[in-house]
Amino acid sequence: VPHLTLAAFTRLLTVLSAIGLVYQPLGVAYTTAILADGDRTLGATYFGLLQGAIGAGSLIGILMLTGLSERRPAAVLYSTAVAFSLALAGLGLTAALPVALALGVLIGGCQFANSNLTLALAQHHTTEAMRGRVMSLSMVAFVGIFPFTSYALGAIASVVGTEASFVGCGV
Predict the structure, then answer these.
(1) Which range (29-43, 47-61, 114-128) has the least confidence?
(2) Closest Cα to residue 116, out of 47, 69, 151?
(3) Residue (of 169, 170, 58) closest to 117 by Cα position
(4) Most confident by average pLDDT, 28-32, 122-126, 139-143
(5) d(CA 3, CA 125)
(6) 84-100, pLDDT tens digit by residue?
(7) Considering the chain, what percentage of its residues have pLDDT values greater than 70?
(8) Contact at 8 Å (CB) between 16 and 115?
(9) How far apart are CA 161 and CA 92, in angstroms?
(10) Cα(169)–Cα(171) distance, rounded to whole angstroms?
C-alpha cells in the first residue's frame, strides 16, 4: 500500500475508534430502547446477543483477513471501512433483532479486520528504529481517544437518540 502513509494509517484508526465504536457505549441503550421497546430484561438479553454477533463477526473478519490482505491490502482496507460505516448506519435504521444481529456480524468483522490490517500495515511500513513510536501513536489513536469521544457521543445521543447517533457516525 505505497500510496498510504503512516499518518493515513493513524488517521484511519483514530476515526474508526473515535466515531465508529459508538455502538459499544450506546449498545445497551439501543438494545433496550429500540430492539426491546423499553423492556430492560429483554434489552439486556438482546445486548448480549448483539455483542455475541459482533464477536462472531470479529472472528470471521480476522480469519478472512489472513488470505485477502496479502493479495489486495488497499482494497481490503477501504472496503472494510466502507462496509463498517454502512453497517453502523444500518444499525441505526433498524428495530428488528435479526437484522441488527446480521449487521452486528458485519460490524464486528469489518471493524476487527480493518483495525488489525491497519496496525499490521503501520508496522510493516515503518523502519525498525521507529516501530515502537509508531505503534505507541497507533495505540493512542485506537484505544486512547475512545473514552473521550464516547462521552461526547453519549451526550449527543441523549439529545438526538441512539438511532440518529449510529446513522450519523456511520455516515
Answers:
(1) 114-128
(2) 69
(3) 58
(4) 28-32
(5) 11
(6) 999 999 999 999 999 99
(7) 97
(8) yes
(9) 9
(10) 5
Residue with cell 465504536: 21
Give a three-class secondary structure readout of the chain: CCCCCHHHHHHHHHHHHHCHHHHCCCHHHHHHHHHCCCCHHHHHHHHHHHHHHHHHHHHHHHHHHHHHHHHCHHHHHHHHHHHHHHHHHHHHHCCCHHHHHHHHHHHHHHHHHHHHHHHHHHHHCCCHHHHHHHHHHHHHHHHHCHHHHHHHHHHHHHHHCHHHHHHHHHC
Phi-psi category of residue 72: left, alpha or beta, with phi > 0 → left and psi -120 to 50 → alpha:
beta
What pTM, to 2 d.p., does this model score? 0.90
Q: Kindly state the average pLDDT of the residues 124-145.
A: 85
d(CA 42, CA 63): 32
Task: Please choose, from the candidates 52, 51, 28, the residue with its C-alpha nearest in 3D space to the C-alpha of residue 162.
Answer: 28
The Cα–Cα gap between 108 and 54 comes to: 4
Distance CA 66, CA 80 (A): 14
- What is the widest separation between alpha-carbon atoms in the chain? 54
Q: Which CA distances in Å does 9 have to 57, 89, 107?
A: 22, 23, 19
